[in-house]
Amino acid sequence: MIYKRKIEVNIDKFLREKGGKILFIWGPRRSGKTTILELLAKKYNTKIYNFDLINQSKRFFPDEFHLEKIAKENKFILIDEVQNSPESSRALKILVDVYKKRIIATGSSELRQKAGKDFDTLTDRFKEIYCLPISISEILSFNDNNLLDNIQEKLQIFGSYPEILLGKLSESEKIEKLEMIVDTYVIKDVVNIYDLKDADLAKRILSKIALQLGSEVSLREISNSLNANVSTVSNYIEIFIKNYILIPLPSFKTNIRKSVSENRKLYFYDLGIRNALVKDFRELELRPDAGGVWENLAIIEFEKQKKINNLLLNYYFYREYGGKEIDLVIEDYKKNYICVEIKKNKGKINEIFPLDHKTEILTKENFIEKFDEK
């Protein structure tokens, strides 16, 4: 069965347009970015430049001979893991401006920070889309009843990385592959790219966060428990956020009434990765963390909905001094608010938010309907 990702529609539209432009596809490793490039390379009979390989990334420097050759050899230019060569930004600008090429480049949006002023020269020359672990709206579009069977539990236990969700794997094979993804791509790969000092510390930080789903994360508490520097812990967490491993949810602040929290909540983009870190793949009814896992699943889908559809929204949680809390506050750019209570079963929302707002309750019963974009 062929599963067409939603971003493929955006890619097809981009390639039909005229003139030079770059389409950056951001997302974590193993989320399907390379597979999409391979399909495009086959369809248009062009090559992929893999910037994991130094000899390929070095071809992209501002030299007329090399760039003209690349432009003539390729109808479209396809680049994988573009963030590994931030100095290539100047070459990409020339390929767009001089040779009017359409470029698709995948990787981490960390490229923006790494390239600095060179990336700034690409202003008005690129678009951005996201390739994340498969969303529930994509799963519904696949029209695969076998895949949809018990889908909420599948997502909460094994997550939605394409090879895990769509592959014909046994449970033990899924667990083995998820543990490999954690050690090889989430930890080792990020440590190597950013030249971090301690892979073991990186994994222990993530594991600490994995045990705090739905709770506010204190950098000082984590650093004290791991005997690490607060700034080091903060740096590692920011890298995991930029590489689509963690989703930050800040506390909402208002001048009308100060909320009590200064900390953020941190959720995982994929619950299979999270469960591999805590080494727990039991059925949900056997697990003490089932409430936090359900809350994380909801946050994942809201975040995917926002990024896939390029929605201009901000997400927060809200807690007042008495301890009452709202799981998710959605803010649009006109300062309209929706307060969402995330519950496994029916319940009522805490009416504590101090600004005009609408309310929603997300439960297992209306979860599919909420994210069905048909």
Plain-language structure description:
44% of the residues lie in helices and 16% in strands. It has helices spanning 7-16, 33-44, 54-57, 64-73, 89-97, 111-115, 117-120, 136-141, 145-148, 151-158, 162-165, 171-193, 199-210, 219-226, 230-242, 271-278, 290-308, 367-371; strands at 21-26, 48-50, 77-80, 102-107, 126-130, 216-217, 246-249, 264-268, 313-319, 325-332, 337-342, 358-362. Helix 10 crosses helix 16. The strands form three sheets. It has a five-stranded parallel beta sheet, sandwiched between helices. Strands 9-10-11-12 form a four-stranded mixed beta sheet, covered by helices on one side. Strands 6-8-7 form a three-stranded antiparallel beta sheet. It has two domains: 7-130, Rossmann fold (3-Layer(aba) Sandwich); 139-371, Orthogonal Bundle (Arc Repressor Mutant, subunit A), CATH 1.10.10.10. With 374 residues, it is an alpha/beta fold.
Sum up the structure in keywords.
374 residues; Rossmann fold; Arc Repressor Mutant, subunit A; 4-stranded mixed β-sheet; 18 helices; 16% strand; globular
